[in-house]
Amino acid sequence: MYNAVLLAVDLQSTGSYSAHDLAAREVAAALIQSTSPRLHVLGIYQYDTINTRRLPLAMVGPYRDEQMYRTDTRIVRTLDAYIAPLATAGMAVSTLWRVGPLRDAVVQAATAINADLLIVGTPGQRKRFCRAHSVLLQLSQEAPCPVLLVSPGQRCDTETTCVVPWEQRTACASHGPPRPSG
After folding, report:
1. Are 153 and 159 in contact (CB under 8 A)?
2. What is the mean pLDDT of the chain?
3. Tell me, what's the pLDDT at 125?
4. Which of 182, 178, 170, 177 is nearest to 133 (CA)?
């Protein structure tokens, strides 16, 4: 059914993975166990803006390089920890890293590996969801393969993970409408 599955993990905002990313990992693991494709995990992030106004000009380049190295190292460790349960279970997993905007990085990676399916965890925080809504919508239109958006089971009573197509984001077909939080 699928030869290459791409699981995209957005590490831009916090430098770590969320419950939504963990739910996406669960779905990817279940899918590749049943169909045996290769899973590619993509970590996406951006470098922080650094205030270098008070640094001597000769120090700006080395300081920026050091900050980029630290960010790269932290992201690699985070992504390695994220895929560790998959590798421990004996699944074929490869990692990719991209620096840049989420949509562009995911489309480029999906095209490069010739992905048959793209799995993305939906953003969790309400503010972040509003910003990411348009990015995910554009991603679903520009991706070279089908996009599966995954949300953790906080909205479902009987499942740990609820997989909802984008068009049905406000209601889960098998578990009814989203439950009010709180």
Report:
1. yes
2. 75
3. 52
4. 170
Strand order in the sheet with 93-99: 93-99, 38-45, 4-10, 117-121, 147-152, 161-163
Q: Which residue has the tokens 């074929």?
A: 92
In a domain, 46, yes or no: no
CATH number at residue 109: 3.40.50.620
Cα distances (Å, whole numbers) of residue 141 to 51, 87, 116: 36, 31, 15
User: 32 lies in which domain range?
Assistant: 4-38+60-168
Q: 151 lies in a domain?
A: yes
**pLDDT one-digit tens code per residue, 23-75:** 888 888 888 887 767 889 988 888 888 787 888 888 888 988 998 998 888 88
Q: Report how many domains make up the chain.
A: 1
